[in-house]
Amino acid sequence: MVEHLNVAMAPKDSTFQVRINSEIKKAVEEIYARTGMTLTDAFNTFIQQSLNVEGLPFLVTQNSKEALREQAIAMLMMDLKRAEERAEKEGWIDADDLEKELGV
Known about the structure:
Layout: H1 22-33, H2 39-53, H3 64-90, H4 95-102
């Protein structure tokens, strides 16, 4: 598992070049600019998500809606399993203790 890798914090010691149609590049840059990102930011986000899920951060399929739902469920189940393993290792906390800890 490569979850310890952090694209934003890792030293930049390699380059990656890609050739792309200039019109497509401009259109994509405009899309990302609306979210406050550069094309490089978006690419680094794609790479980080690929590391996080150990694969493509989205499914490529003819039925994307159902496939994305299944992927979301699988990721949720993986997160729940990790949380359960962590709780077993570090100890469980019940809702009352959590409220006390949070001062609710």
